[in-house]
From TrEMBL:
Organism: Meriones unguiculatus
Keywords, alphabetical: Collagen, Secreted, Signal
Protein name, entry field: Adiponectin
GO cellular component: collagen trimer; extracellular region
Start and end residues of each stretch annotated as Disordered: 42-99
C1q domain residues: 108-244
Record's compositionally biased regions (Basic and acidic residues): 55-70
Signal peptide: 1-17
Length: 244
């Protein structure tokens, strides 16, 4: 062992000899404390084991704020939310611009059919149409005074009425449509008095239908009367025509 130490010492000496010798007297280095005189350094030992990691240091001071980064990618569409509450009504807007003038429409055709007639003489013949020859209105000529009948020229709904004066006998009259009585009126005569009787009805007519009044039964019920101060009248007119 001593021989190995001596060899190592000799190898170290040349390197120390090449070092620059300081000017002035050389003072020998004192030997290490706790060593004997004439000591000799040993060979370096093996590196020691790594020590245990030290504790974490304190947090550093916050750094400066970095620059704004680029916008991220657009995320997926979220679910539809609940319907919100209805807001309050806003103020009324300004009037809009008037629209263009429309195309001229077709003229509406007005359907007319009406008559109003009166009795000029006393009726004596039963069971036949009463001929009202006193014409108040018959512009469309749909009533024929020679037969006492109204002839339908426009299909639709019609209103008919009659107002008769009763004198000398009882009265029983019927309103006929196409040879069938559809309305009856009876009035009993009061002696020495002039009485009144009336009736009205709505009828749907087709083109060619006929409507008239006549005394119903025998001659005992033909007390219809008219003079210069008493009238018996028969009236009818179209309410509205069929659209089909």
């Amino acid at each position: 062992m001593l021989l190995l130490q001596a060899v190592l010492f000799l190898l170290i000496l040349p390197s120390h000899a090449e070092e620059t010798i300081p000017e002035g007297p050389v003072v020998p280095a004192p030997p290490p404390k706790g060593t004997c005189a004439g000591w000799m350094a040993g060979i370096p030992g093996h590196p020691g084991h790594n020590g245990t990691p030290g504790r974490d240091g304190r947090d550093g001071t916050p750094g400066e704020k970095g620059e704004k980064g680029d916008a991220g990618l657009l995320g997926p569409k979220g679910e539809t939310g609940d319907v919100g509450m209805t807001g309050t009504e806003g103020p009324r807007g300004f009037p809009g611009i008037p629209g263009r003038k429309g195309e001229p429409g077709e003229g509406a055709y007005v359907y007319r059919s009406a008559f109003s007639v009166g009795l000029e003489t006393r009726v004596t013949v039963p069971s036949v149409p009463i001929r009202f020859t006193k014409i108040f209105y018959n512009q469309q000529n749909h009533y024929d005074a020679s037969t006492g009948k109204f002839y339908c020229n426009i299909p639709g709904l019609y209103y008919f009425s009659y107002h008769i004066t009763v004198y000398m006998k009882d009265v029983k009259v019927s309103l006929f449509k196409k040879d069938k009585a559809v309305l009856f009126t009876y009035d009993q005569y009061q002696e020495k008095n002039v009485d009144q009787a009336s009736g009205s009805v709505l009828l749907h007519l087709e083109v060619g239908d006929q409507v008239w009044l006549q005394v119903y039964g025998d001659g005992d019920h033909n007390g219809l009367y008219a003079d210069n101060v008493n009238d018996s009248t028969f009236t009818g007119f179209l309410l509205y025509h069929d659209t089909n």
